[in-house]
Amino acid sequence: MISGSVRFLVNVESLNGVESVGNLSRHRTAPIVTRKSTGEYVIRYVPVISGESLAHAYQMALVEIAEKMGLPVTHRTKQGELIKFANDDVLKEENIASPKDEKDARRFEVDVMLKDVVADVGGFMYAGKNPVRRSSKFSVGYMIPSLKTDEIPAQLEAQFHVRYSVVSSKDEQAIYNVEVGSALYTVSFLLDDGLIGVPSNPGKADKEDELLRIRGARVEASVRALYHLLTGNFGAKRSRFLPQLELKSAVLTVTDFPFVVEPGHSDDYIKLSHERAERAKSILMGKKVKTFAINREGLDTGKAEVKSNPEEVVEALLKEVKG
Fold first, then answer.
1. Burial class (CB in 10 A: 0-12, 13-18, 19+), 176
2. Do strands 154-163 and 289-295 pair parallel, antiparallel, or not at all (unpaired)?
3. What is one GO biological process annotated to this record (predicted)?
4. I need a labelling partner for 64 at 20 to 30 A (CA). Which of 7, 22, 100, 175 fits?
């Protein structure tokens, strides 16, 4: 399992909008609970970027890499329509027989996985007469401001713009406002690479040798796609609001047991993650712990193996999953 937390300094971004109110395009916000140095807990509304947005970016990165590696991806998935075999119309397009009953769920799951590596890694839900679900092997939460001190390092501001033309009529000119955010963000994610290419539903085994044969390539593609998260290649409205984004620090662990690293809210989150992973190894009778870090903030990284950039981290992860 690969677990990671990252801290980004992001200035002037509109990576995740919600509904427009009049001529104002709003940035997504969410309530968070934080504890002040005086001891009381308070609620603050802050700019955030949703896990749905990040997961979509990750899966589209996986599409690009899968195509280069010759792995199967459906036409709808290539176009960013991640409905993933949700109904019978999609099954007809891909020539997949719907599940006859609960005993046929495993056969159906394998057929879908063989058609689309994104459905394998990102999961799917067939909602027909006999529903079949495969849980995502990639998990990610909201990207929220780092809660390091009483003063949350985040702010929203609406920027004024005008679409203007000298020769246009008055009605064709427009005033609009886009709400942009700046924050020291942190985000956490998991990739359960041990379950990629492995069916999860009960039933009779069929075509699973074919899955096993290409499982290593699917795991490799999934790890390579993490590069997009580590370099900030996600979010919307980038054409005119490409953010000033800097990766400040990160911690990633590779373990053979379930483990989640510390979120990037404290300055010792890298050191603490490594120490916890080593102790969890003993508790859960694991055999493997590797911790990698990027440190551009002068943090205490403990005994984590420090890398200079995301490229070195992904190379190290690939080496670990390839054994």
1. middle
2. unpaired
3. defense response to virus
4. 7
3 state SS of 202: coil
Question: What would the two tokens of residue 283 be?
Answer: 């508790």
In three-state secondary structure terms, 12 is strand
Which of 106-120, 204-218, 284-298 shows the lowest mean pLDDT across its residues?
204-218
Query: Is a pLDDT exceeding 80 seen at residue 143?
Result: yes
Q: Could you tell me whether strands 132-134 and 41-47 are parallel, antiparallel, or unpaired per DSSP bridges? A: unpaired
Give the rounded distance of the alpha carbon of 31 from its chain centre.
21
**Burial zone of 239 (CB within 10 Å; 0-12 exposed, 13-18 middle, 19+ buried):** exposed
Identify which of 3, 123, 122, 120 has the alpha carbon closest to the alpha carbon of residue 58. 122
Q: Distance between CA atoms of 35 and 296, rounded to whole angstroms?
A: 26
Residues 6 or more apart in contact with residue 316 via CB below 8 angstroms: 290, 292, 305, 307
Q: For 271-283, b where at least 16 C-beta lie within 10 A, e where not — what string?
A: bbbbbbbeebbee
Which alpha helices (DSSP H) does 27-181 contain, by range?
Answer: 51-68, 75-78, 88-94, 105-115, 117-122
Find, among 56, 199, 6, the residue nearest to 120 by Cα: 199
Judge contact between 318 and 219, C-beta under 8 A.
no
* pTM of this structure: 0.93
Angle between helix axes 51-68 and 208-230 (nearest 10 degrees) is: 120
pLDDT tens, 170-191? 666 788 899 999 999 999 999 9
What is the distance of C-alpha 103 from the center of its chain? 32
Residue 149 DSSP one-character state: S
What DSSP line would sit under 259-305, residue for residue? --PPPTTSTTHHHHHHHHHHHHHHHTT---EEEEEEESS----TT-E
Q: Give ∠ CA 308-278-307 in degrees, rounded to 5.
A: 5
